[in-house]
Amino acid sequence: MSEIQHKETPHIKPEGAEIAETILLPGDPLRAKFIAETYLEDVVQFNKVRGMLGYTGTYQGRRISVMGTGMGTPSMSLYSWELIHVFGVKNLIRIGSAGAIQDHLNLYDIVFAMGSATDSNYGHQYNLPGHYSITASFELLEKAKKIADQKGQKVHVGNVLSSDIFYNADPTALQKWSEMGVLCAEMESAGLYMNAAHAGVNALCILTISDHIFRHESTTPEERQTAFTKMMEIALELA
Question: What residues does phosphate bind to (predicted)?
């Protein structure tokens, strides 16, 4: 076992267990547990610190890990930074839920986040002399689209909003993003994409529509935890 697998951080303690170079990152750690128990073979748990469950196993003979990240850019950015810089992860795929803000999206539709608009100030740390365009890794995006096409699974590819704000004091904010063609709102992709770009590794955010914000439609917490299997199966084949 490589030396890197013996390392630990205050938030991830593998105790010698392997973390694969490709990892799926749901926000909900119980979704990580569901994926490990439903899809993976030869599963080993590599993390339980703060209840942020992480597992490594095999899917169709390929090693892959899955771990919860919590909600929001700060939490996603903390875990993804450690996975990249301490544990050598090369491909990070967020699989999450999102709220639709376009009329042509419906519950359970799948969105690939080609770009990530954001109201977060996370990118301020890089001291860039302008505004950074936050995008997915084309390598993972292209591969995911081909997998979806082979499965006959319709997906939407475009820009999403990665917001720090769930309960916004400005009731017009999401309408303004909608008018710019943004497909849906979530809370983690911007931090993940910036961490990956700065480190030179790959990241992709795959989302299932759990709510339609303007039509006041929604799924249940139980459905969000276990029913988003089409998204999960696309992501698993990226290993």
Answer: 27, 31, 50, 94-97
